[in-house]
Amino acid sequence: MATDARAKFQNPEFRPDFHADLTVSTHDGLHFWQFMIAGSVAGCVEHMAMFPVDTVKTRMQALGSCPVKSVTVRQAFRSILQSEGPSALYRGIGAMGLGAGPAHAVYFSVYETCKRRFSNGNPGNAAAHAASGVCATVASDAVFTPMDMVKQRLQLGNSGYKGVLDCVRRVAAEEGLRAFYASYRTTVLMNAPFTAVHFATYEASKRGLNEVSPGSVVDDERLVVHATAGAAAGALAAAVTTPLDVVKTQLQCQGVCGCDRFKSGSIGDVIKTIVKKDGYRGLMRGWIPRMLFHAPAAAICWSTYEAGKSFFQDFNQQRDIGTVT
Protein backbone atom coordinates (compact mmCIF):
# COMPACT_ATOMS: atom_id res chain seq x y z
CA MET A 1 0.00 0.00 0.00
CA ALA A 2 2.82 2.38 0.92
CA THR A 3 4.64 1.50 -2.30
CA ASP A 4 1.53 2.36 -4.35
CA ALA A 5 1.21 5.69 -2.56
CA ARG A 6 4.84 6.57 -3.24
CA ALA A 7 4.46 5.66 -6.89
CA LYS A 8 1.34 7.79 -7.22
CA PHE A 9 3.01 10.91 -5.87
CA GLN A 10 6.45 10.69 -7.50
CA ASN A 11 5.93 14.12 -9.05
CA PRO A 12 8.55 16.37 -7.39
CA GLU A 13 6.17 19.35 -7.61
CA PHE A 14 3.63 17.62 -5.41
CA ARG A 15 3.08 19.31 -2.07
CA PRO A 16 0.50 17.85 0.31
CA ASP A 17 -1.14 21.17 1.10
CA PHE A 18 -4.44 20.23 -0.64
CA HIS A 19 -4.77 23.55 -2.43
CA ALA A 20 -3.45 24.60 -5.85
CA ASP A 21 -1.66 21.36 -6.68
CA LEU A 22 -4.66 19.24 -5.81
CA THR A 23 -6.81 20.84 -8.49
CA VAL A 24 -4.64 19.28 -11.23
CA SER A 25 -4.63 15.86 -9.61
CA THR A 26 -6.25 13.13 -11.68
CA HIS A 27 -8.53 12.14 -8.79
CA ASP A 28 -8.85 15.42 -6.84
CA GLY A 29 -8.81 13.50 -3.58
CA LEU A 30 -12.60 13.12 -3.51
CA HIS A 31 -14.97 10.19 -3.17
CA PHE A 32 -17.58 9.38 -5.81
CA TRP A 33 -20.46 10.56 -3.60
CA GLN A 34 -18.73 13.89 -3.02
CA PHE A 35 -18.56 14.53 -6.77
CA MET A 36 -22.29 13.72 -6.93
CA ILE A 37 -23.22 16.18 -4.18
CA ALA A 38 -21.04 18.98 -5.60
CA GLY A 39 -22.49 18.40 -9.07
CA SER A 40 -26.07 18.24 -7.83
CA VAL A 41 -25.79 21.54 -5.96
CA ALA A 42 -24.05 23.19 -8.93
CA GLY A 43 -26.75 22.04 -11.35
CA CYS A 44 -29.61 23.28 -9.20
CA VAL A 45 -28.01 26.67 -8.61
CA GLU A 46 -27.21 27.07 -12.31
CA HIS A 47 -30.68 26.27 -13.66
CA MET A 48 -32.66 28.05 -10.97
CA ALA A 49 -30.66 31.26 -11.41
CA MET A 50 -31.05 31.33 -15.20
CA PHE A 51 -34.56 29.88 -15.50
CA PRO A 52 -36.30 33.06 -16.83
CA VAL A 53 -33.87 33.21 -19.74
CA ASP A 54 -34.52 29.54 -20.47
CA THR A 55 -38.26 30.26 -20.56
CA VAL A 56 -37.75 32.99 -23.16
CA LYS A 57 -35.59 30.65 -25.25
CA THR A 58 -38.24 27.91 -25.16
CA ARG A 59 -40.99 30.33 -26.21
CA MET A 60 -38.90 31.69 -29.08
CA GLN A 61 -38.05 28.22 -30.35
CA ALA A 62 -41.73 27.28 -30.63
CA LEU A 63 -41.72 28.72 -34.17
CA GLY A 64 -44.32 31.37 -33.44
CA SER A 65 -47.08 28.84 -32.72
CA CYS A 66 -47.27 30.06 -29.11
CA PRO A 67 -47.92 33.55 -27.71
CA VAL A 68 -44.36 34.86 -28.17
CA LYS A 69 -43.99 35.42 -31.92
CA SER A 70 -41.05 37.80 -31.83
CA VAL A 71 -37.51 36.67 -32.51
CA THR A 72 -35.94 39.36 -30.33
CA VAL A 73 -35.14 38.74 -26.68
CA ARG A 74 -36.36 42.13 -25.46
CA GLN A 75 -39.74 41.85 -27.15
CA ALA A 76 -40.10 38.27 -25.95
CA PHE A 77 -39.54 39.32 -22.34
CA ARG A 78 -41.97 42.23 -22.72
CA SER A 79 -44.62 40.03 -24.31
CA ILE A 80 -44.47 37.48 -21.49
CA LEU A 81 -44.51 40.11 -18.74
CA GLN A 82 -47.39 42.08 -20.25
CA SER A 83 -49.62 39.12 -21.11
CA GLU A 84 -48.93 36.75 -18.21
CA GLY A 85 -46.93 38.57 -15.54
CA PRO A 86 -43.53 37.84 -13.96
CA SER A 87 -44.63 34.47 -12.59
CA ALA A 88 -44.86 33.11 -16.14
CA LEU A 89 -41.07 33.28 -16.39
CA TYR A 90 -40.88 30.62 -13.68
CA ARG A 91 -43.51 28.17 -14.94
CA GLY A 92 -41.96 24.69 -14.85
CA ILE A 93 -39.23 25.53 -12.37
CA GLY A 94 -40.45 22.70 -10.14
CA ALA A 95 -39.78 20.17 -12.89
CA MET A 96 -36.36 21.71 -13.39
CA GLY A 97 -35.58 21.30 -9.72
CA LEU A 98 -36.65 17.65 -9.73
CA GLY A 99 -34.52 16.88 -12.77
CA ALA A 100 -31.46 19.10 -12.48
CA GLY A 101 -30.19 17.82 -9.13
CA PRO A 102 -30.06 14.09 -9.92
CA ALA A 103 -28.97 14.68 -13.52
CA HIS A 104 -26.03 16.87 -12.57
CA ALA A 105 -25.03 14.47 -9.82
CA VAL A 106 -24.72 11.79 -12.50
CA TYR A 107 -23.16 14.25 -14.95
CA PHE A 108 -20.21 15.37 -12.86
CA SER A 109 -19.54 12.07 -11.13
CA VAL A 110 -19.39 10.23 -14.48
CA TYR A 111 -17.23 13.01 -15.93
CA GLU A 112 -14.70 12.87 -13.10
CA THR A 113 -14.60 9.07 -13.18
CA CYS A 114 -14.08 8.93 -16.95
CA LYS A 115 -11.54 11.77 -16.88
CA ARG A 116 -9.47 9.85 -14.36
CA ARG A 117 -9.55 6.72 -16.53
CA PHE A 118 -9.07 8.38 -19.94
CA SER A 119 -6.40 10.99 -19.12
CA ASN A 120 -3.70 8.51 -18.02
CA GLY A 121 -2.25 11.05 -15.62
CA ASN A 122 -2.14 13.88 -18.18
CA PRO A 123 -4.27 16.82 -16.92
CA GLY A 124 -3.91 18.58 -20.30
CA ASN A 125 -5.43 15.77 -22.38
CA ALA A 126 -8.19 17.61 -24.28
CA ALA A 127 -9.40 14.44 -26.02
CA ALA A 128 -9.90 12.75 -22.64
CA HIS A 129 -11.88 15.75 -21.38
CA ALA A 130 -14.09 15.74 -24.48
CA ALA A 131 -14.68 11.98 -24.37
CA SER A 132 -15.44 12.14 -20.66
CA GLY A 133 -17.95 14.90 -21.29
CA VAL A 134 -19.73 12.84 -23.94
CA CYS A 135 -20.00 9.85 -21.57
CA ALA A 136 -21.31 12.15 -18.85
CA THR A 137 -24.01 13.67 -21.04
CA VAL A 138 -25.30 10.32 -22.32
CA ALA A 139 -25.77 9.15 -18.73
CA SER A 140 -27.22 12.40 -17.36
CA ASP A 141 -29.62 12.94 -20.26
CA ALA A 142 -31.25 9.60 -19.48
CA VAL A 143 -32.09 11.04 -16.06
CA PHE A 144 -32.97 14.59 -17.10
CA THR A 145 -34.92 14.20 -20.37
CA PRO A 146 -38.34 13.29 -18.84
CA MET A 147 -38.37 16.29 -16.49
CA ASP A 148 -36.97 18.53 -19.22
CA MET A 149 -39.93 17.62 -21.39
CA VAL A 150 -42.33 18.44 -18.55
CA LYS A 151 -40.48 21.68 -17.88
CA GLN A 152 -40.67 22.87 -21.49
CA ARG A 153 -44.36 22.08 -21.82
CA LEU A 154 -45.10 24.05 -18.68
CA GLN A 155 -43.04 26.97 -19.98
CA LEU A 156 -45.50 27.39 -22.86
CA GLY A 157 -48.07 29.76 -21.39
CA ASN A 158 -51.26 28.25 -22.85
CA SER A 159 -50.25 24.62 -22.46
CA GLY A 160 -53.26 23.85 -20.24
CA TYR A 161 -51.26 21.94 -17.63
CA LYS A 162 -51.91 22.86 -14.00
CA GLY A 163 -48.48 21.83 -12.75
CA VAL A 164 -45.75 19.21 -12.80
CA LEU A 165 -47.88 16.32 -11.50
CA ASP A 166 -50.79 17.16 -13.80
CA CYS A 167 -48.45 17.29 -16.81
CA VAL A 168 -46.87 13.94 -15.92
CA ARG A 169 -50.26 12.25 -15.47
CA ARG A 170 -51.78 13.62 -18.67
CA VAL A 171 -48.76 12.90 -20.85
CA ALA A 172 -48.54 9.34 -19.52
CA ALA A 173 -52.27 8.77 -20.05
CA GLU A 174 -52.64 10.49 -23.45
CA GLU A 175 -49.28 9.85 -25.12
CA GLY A 176 -47.71 7.00 -23.21
CA LEU A 177 -44.41 6.73 -21.40
CA ARG A 178 -42.46 6.95 -24.67
CA ALA A 179 -43.43 10.63 -24.88
CA PHE A 180 -41.11 11.40 -21.97
CA TYR A 181 -38.16 10.22 -24.08
CA ALA A 182 -39.34 11.46 -27.49
CA SER A 183 -36.38 13.85 -27.69
CA TYR A 184 -33.76 11.67 -26.00
CA ARG A 185 -31.96 10.78 -29.22
CA THR A 186 -31.93 14.41 -30.35
CA THR A 187 -30.87 15.54 -26.89
CA VAL A 188 -27.90 13.16 -26.88
CA LEU A 189 -26.93 14.14 -30.44
CA MET A 190 -27.08 17.79 -29.36
CA ASN A 191 -25.43 17.46 -25.98
CA ALA A 192 -22.63 15.14 -27.10
CA PRO A 193 -20.95 17.81 -29.27
CA PHE A 194 -22.09 20.51 -26.82
CA THR A 195 -20.41 18.74 -23.93
CA ALA A 196 -17.31 17.84 -25.94
CA VAL A 197 -16.82 21.49 -26.92
CA HIS A 198 -17.81 22.67 -23.44
CA PHE A 199 -15.43 20.51 -21.42
CA ALA A 200 -12.50 20.82 -23.82
CA THR A 201 -12.91 24.63 -23.88
CA TYR A 202 -13.37 24.81 -20.12
CA GLU A 203 -10.29 22.74 -19.28
CA ALA A 204 -8.16 24.59 -21.86
CA SER A 205 -9.38 28.01 -20.69
CA LYS A 206 -8.88 27.12 -17.04
CA ARG A 207 -5.38 25.84 -17.70
CA GLY A 208 -4.49 28.97 -19.70
CA LEU A 209 -5.88 31.32 -17.06
CA ASN A 210 -4.05 29.45 -14.30
CA GLU A 211 -0.78 29.80 -16.21
CA VAL A 212 -1.06 33.59 -16.27
CA SER A 213 -2.20 33.75 -12.64
CA PRO A 214 0.22 33.94 -9.71
CA GLY A 215 1.32 30.59 -8.32
CA SER A 216 -0.16 31.39 -4.91
CA VAL A 217 -3.58 32.38 -6.25
CA VAL A 218 -6.15 33.05 -3.56
CA ASP A 219 -9.59 31.44 -3.45
CA ASP A 220 -11.42 34.52 -4.81
CA GLU A 221 -9.11 34.72 -7.82
CA ARG A 222 -9.44 30.99 -8.41
CA LEU A 223 -13.23 31.43 -8.41
CA VAL A 224 -12.89 34.06 -11.15
CA VAL A 225 -10.80 31.63 -13.20
CA HIS A 226 -13.48 28.93 -12.98
CA ALA A 227 -16.28 31.39 -13.77
CA THR A 228 -14.46 32.91 -16.76
CA ALA A 229 -13.49 29.55 -18.22
CA GLY A 230 -17.02 28.25 -17.69
CA ALA A 231 -18.61 31.27 -19.38
CA ALA A 232 -16.37 30.94 -22.44
CA ALA A 233 -17.10 27.24 -22.70
CA GLY A 234 -20.84 27.68 -22.28
CA ALA A 235 -21.17 30.44 -24.87
CA LEU A 236 -19.20 28.62 -27.55
CA ALA A 237 -20.92 25.27 -27.03
CA ALA A 238 -24.37 26.90 -27.01
CA ALA A 239 -23.82 28.72 -30.30
CA VAL A 240 -22.58 25.59 -32.08
CA THR A 241 -25.50 23.38 -31.05
CA THR A 242 -28.49 25.76 -31.34
CA PRO A 243 -30.09 24.04 -34.40
CA LEU A 244 -30.36 20.72 -32.56
CA ASP A 245 -31.73 22.52 -29.51
CA VAL A 246 -34.53 23.93 -31.69
CA VAL A 247 -35.29 20.39 -32.90
CA LYS A 248 -35.33 19.13 -29.31
CA THR A 249 -37.78 21.84 -28.23
CA GLN A 250 -40.11 21.01 -31.12
CA LEU A 251 -40.11 17.30 -30.22
CA GLN A 252 -40.74 17.95 -26.53
CA CYS A 253 -43.50 20.49 -27.12
CA GLN A 254 -45.24 18.78 -30.05
CA GLY A 255 -49.00 18.99 -29.94
CA VAL A 256 -48.93 21.59 -27.17
CA CYS A 257 -49.99 25.21 -27.60
CA GLY A 258 -50.39 24.82 -31.36
CA CYS A 259 -46.95 23.32 -31.97
CA ASP A 260 -46.68 20.75 -34.75
CA ARG A 261 -46.93 17.03 -33.99
CA PHE A 262 -44.48 14.71 -35.72
CA LYS A 263 -45.36 11.14 -36.70
CA SER A 264 -41.88 9.68 -36.90
CA GLY A 265 -40.01 11.92 -34.49
CA SER A 266 -36.93 11.78 -36.72
CA ILE A 267 -34.53 14.70 -36.68
CA GLY A 268 -34.71 15.01 -40.47
CA ASP A 269 -38.50 15.40 -40.49
CA VAL A 270 -38.39 18.05 -37.79
CA ILE A 271 -35.69 20.01 -39.61
CA LYS A 272 -37.71 19.88 -42.84
CA THR A 273 -40.78 21.19 -41.01
CA ILE A 274 -38.80 24.01 -39.40
CA VAL A 275 -37.18 25.06 -42.69
CA LYS A 276 -40.50 24.92 -44.55
CA LYS A 277 -42.28 26.97 -41.91
CA ASP A 278 -39.62 29.51 -40.95
CA GLY A 279 -36.70 29.11 -43.37
CA TYR A 280 -33.17 28.16 -42.39
CA ARG A 281 -33.11 31.00 -39.90
CA GLY A 282 -35.68 29.02 -37.93
CA LEU A 283 -32.92 26.58 -36.97
CA MET A 284 -31.18 29.41 -35.12
CA ARG A 285 -34.24 30.65 -33.25
CA GLY A 286 -33.40 31.46 -29.67
CA TRP A 287 -29.63 31.42 -30.16
CA ILE A 288 -29.19 34.72 -28.34
CA PRO A 289 -31.07 33.73 -25.16
CA ARG A 290 -29.43 30.30 -25.42
CA MET A 291 -26.00 31.94 -25.27
CA LEU A 292 -27.23 34.38 -22.62
CA PHE A 293 -28.34 31.35 -20.63
CA HIS A 294 -25.34 29.07 -21.04
CA ALA A 295 -22.52 31.60 -20.61
CA PRO A 296 -23.51 32.79 -17.10
CA ALA A 297 -25.07 29.40 -16.28
CA ALA A 298 -21.80 27.62 -17.00
CA ALA A 299 -19.91 30.24 -15.00
CA ILE A 300 -22.28 29.72 -12.06
CA CYS A 301 -22.22 25.95 -12.41
CA TRP A 302 -18.45 25.52 -12.64
CA SER A 303 -17.64 28.00 -9.89
CA THR A 304 -20.24 26.36 -7.62
CA TYR A 305 -18.97 22.90 -8.50
CA GLU A 306 -15.34 23.78 -7.90
CA ALA A 307 -16.29 25.49 -4.64
CA GLY A 308 -18.05 22.29 -3.60
CA LYS A 309 -14.98 20.25 -4.49
CA SER A 310 -12.79 22.60 -2.47
CA PHE A 311 -15.12 22.22 0.49
CA PHE A 312 -14.88 18.44 0.36
CA GLN A 313 -11.11 18.57 -0.15
CA ASP A 314 -10.74 20.65 3.01
CA PHE A 315 -13.20 18.37 4.78
CA ASN A 316 -11.22 15.27 3.81
CA GLN A 317 -7.97 16.95 4.83
CA GLN A 318 -9.31 17.84 8.27
CA ARG A 319 -10.75 14.35 8.68
CA ASP A 320 -7.43 12.74 7.73
CA ILE A 321 -5.55 15.01 10.16
CA GLY A 322 -7.99 14.09 12.90
CA THR A 323 -7.55 10.41 12.11
CA VAL A 324 -3.76 10.69 12.23
CA THR A 325 -3.72 12.62 15.51
From TrEMBL:
Q: Which PANTHER family match?
A: MITOCHONDRIAL SUBSTRATE CARRIER FAMILY PROTEIN, MITOFERRIN-1-RELATED
Instruction: Enumerate the SUPFAM superfamilies for this protein.
Output: Mitochondrial carrier (SSF103506)
Q: Name one GO molecular function term.
A: iron ion transmembrane transporter activity
Q: Which family does it belong to?
A: Belongs to the mitochondrial carrier (TC 2.A.29) family.
Q: Which InterPro entries match?
A: MCP (IPR002067), MCP_dom_sf (IPR023395), MCP_transmembrane (IPR018108)
Looking at the keywords, is Transmembrane present?
Answer: yes
- What PROSITE patterns does this protein map onto? SOLCAR
Location in the cell reads:
Mitochondrion membrane
Could you list this entry's UniProt keywords, alphabetically sorted: Membrane, Mitochondrion, Repeat, Transmembrane, Transmembrane helix, Transport
The protein in question is named Mitochondrial carrier protein
Pfam families hit by this protein:
Mito_carr
Protein topology in the membrane: Multi-pass membrane protein
Q: Give the CC-aspect GO terms.
A: mitochondrial membrane
* Main location group: mitochondrion
Q: Which organism is it from?
A: Flemingia macrophylla
**Solcar repeats (start-end):** 30-117, 124-208, 221-311
